[in-house]
Amino acid sequence: MRQWIVGSALGLVAAFGPVSALAQAPAADAGALAEAVARSGFTLAGAIEHVTRGPDEVPLSGGFALEGGVLTLSVTTSFNGLEGPVGEAEFREYVGDATQPMWTSAVEIYADFADVARAAEERALLALTEETLAETVAKAEELGTVVSARPAVVDGKAVFELITAREGALTTTTYDLLTGEDTAAPAQVAQASPPAPAPEPAPAPAPEPAPAPAPEPAPAPTPAPAPAPSPAPTPAPAPAPAPEPAPAPAPAPSPAPAPAPTPPPAPAEPAAPAGTPVTFTAQQARSGGGVFNDACSGCHGEGANMVGANWSGKTVAELYQFISSQMPADAPRSRTPNEYLTAMVYILSRNGYEAGDAPMPGDPAAMETMTLGQAAPAPSPPTVPTPAPTPAPAPAPAPTPAPANPAPAPTPAPAPAPAPTPSPAPAPAAPAPEAPAAGGGTPISFTAQQARSGGGVFNDACSGCHGDGTNMVGPNWTGKTVAELYQFISTQMPADAPRSRTPSEYLNAMIYILSRNGYEAGTTAMPSDPAALATMTLQRP
Q1: For residues 374 and 371, what is the distance between their CA atoms, to the nearest angstrom?
Q2: Residue 172 pLDDT exceeds 90
Q3: What does the pLDDT average to over 314-328?
Q4: With 458 labelled, which of 125, 233, 278, 512 sits at a CA distance of 20 to 30 A?
């Protein structure tokens, strides 16, 4: 498994001309690149979509490259958008190994003059047009697999310059930056035709068909969350008891049979979907628990609700790839492969998957055959004893009239009644321990509206790894300030795209997490001032 280190140069493309460098590559190198891209399961369009985090971050250029025989895929973005002084712009490169089952990109913020100058030129060109890099790449996909794309100035004309691969060969195509039209469609055809000069008479009868306009790529449908299994309908069990003495006791037996029909939940046993079963041993889970408690529990609590709906249908190999390359958020790739493996096993054991006799293999190819589902522990054991009490309802009505008659008899009971009256006095003392819910300093305050807004951000950016948000503010955060929690979330999360949300979105997402971890909304809004957040101390609610 290849590891990437954020901030390394990686030498993916030459400065000031990634596309031109590819176009001028020797034929053998070009052929090798074309074949490697064809074997890869990734596309430049998919990478652009992956790193696009809203209107502020704009993809500028991107492409595949062979570095030391390894195929890489990178996208350069302007994190602050296309407007504003170029001196205040922040340029990023997302780069990752395109031969792995999952493209996991490391992020480099450009500091080298050559990189910044190239990205600034691309930013200035894109600011002139309504066309986007993603739209142009989608258009060029009709010509073959897009290997690279960038805005550039070619022969004094502003264009999108793209390289496509088809049948082991690379071809350069340019589109007008302002109109999106192919700038050299006739010339491009002429370049392709010289290999077959002999059939000259053929062109006369055959009119040249105009290339069909590229269809707009349909946005990927958002997967609907899996519906929760509906509870089994409770049968109406009113027939057995005969209400002979009085109608009042008759309804009493009716709730008794209600628990009897609980056996239907038994079909919830299949924790893992089709394919090789998800297997691991209890020993692996125990070993992983030690790693998890040391490296993960500070953010993820006890490990429950971590394999959310976003992971359903993905493979164990994809989960392992994510954990081993992105976690812990403050020190990714800092554990051994076996530690990452057992930590993942522990997480699975906390999310409904059960240990067995076969260990979880360390081979990615074997993990690729195991598909994740929304596992839940089956509550079958408690349902077994419930059928036994069913005959009890018959004798039940007989004793019911008895208590009605003796009830008035124990008149002396009122005498002890005044004794409990002093107990209400200590009752008001109970609310007192609830007061220290926010630790010392300023109380932790936020509104329900802030929590609701944060829930939308959380579901979009966090729920895939953090489930419903519970068990996230673990004991490692006790005694720390809300400012420290905000600083961590806003600079480290999401793990695959840190600092990709607005300050307001990070604030509201943090508030939603607090609301899911025992802190209650009130009438005072959470301030966004770091100095004010530093006065609020976290503790276990």
Answers
A1: 10
A2: yes
A3: 90
A4: 278
Q: How many CB atoms lie within 10 A of CB 77?
A: 27
Residues 6+ apart with CB under 8 A from 14: 21
Residue 97 pairs in a beta bridge with 72
What type of residue sits at position 271? Answer: A
Q: Is residue 301 within 8 Å of residue 382, measured between CB atoms?
A: no
* Model confidence pLDDT, tens digit, residues 177-236: 999 899 875 433 333 334 444 445 444 454 454 454 444 544 444 444 444 444 444 444
pLDDT at 155: 87
What is the spatial distance between Cα 267 and Cα 64, in angstroms, rounded to a whole number? 47
Sequential DSSP letters for 130-165: S--HHHHHHHHTTTSEEEEEEEEEETTEEEEEEEEE
Three-state SS at 169: strand
Output the pTM of the full model. 0.38
For residue 328, cis peptide bond before it (omega within 30 degrees of 0): yes
- Using one digit for the tens of pLDDT, what is the confidence trace for 21-71? 444 455 568 888 988 888 887 889 888 887 775 567 899 999 999 988 899
Q: Give me the DSSP letters along 389-436.
A: TTTTTTTTTTTTHHHHTTTTS-TTTTTTTTTTTTTTTTGGGTHHHHST
Q: How far apart are the first and last CA of the chain?
A: 41
CA–CA dist 131, 140 (Å, integer): 13
The position carrying tokens 């994190």 is 79
What is residue 229's DSSP assignment? P
Residue 431 clears pLDDT 90, i.e. is over it: no
Which pLDDT belongs to residue 17? 41
Neighbouring CB atoms inside 10 A of 386's CB total 15
Q: Which amino acid is at 78?
A: S
Amino acid at 408: P
Strand order in the sheet with 58-67: 106-109, 91-97, 70-78, 58-67, 145-154, 157-166, 169-176
Instruction: Count CB-CB contacts under 10 A for residue 490.
Output: 18
pLDDT for the residue 252 = 46
State the Cα–Cα distance between residues 196 and 467, nearest whole angstrom. Answer: 60
Q: For 488, phi and psi rounded to 5 degrees?
A: -65, -50
For the cut 50, the answer to whether the pLDDT of residue 383 exceeds it is no
For residues 495 and 328, what is the distance between their CA atoms, to the nearest angstrom? 9
* Helix H or strand E segment including 108: strand 106-109
Quote the CA–CA distance of 271 and 26 in Å, as a whole number. Answer: 52
Compute the distance between CA of residue 115 and CA of residue 92 in angstroms, rounded to an integer.
10
pLDDT band at 495 (very low <50, low <70, confident <90, very high): confident
Non-local (6+) Cβ contacts of 518 within 8 A are 437, 540, 541
Mean pLDDT, the chain, whole residue set: 73
* Full 3-state SS string of 34-58: HHHHHHCCCCHHHHHHHHCCCCCCE
Q: Which residues pair with 172 in a beta bridge?
A: 163
Q: Which of 502, 466, 495, 412 is nearest to 80 (CA)?
A: 502
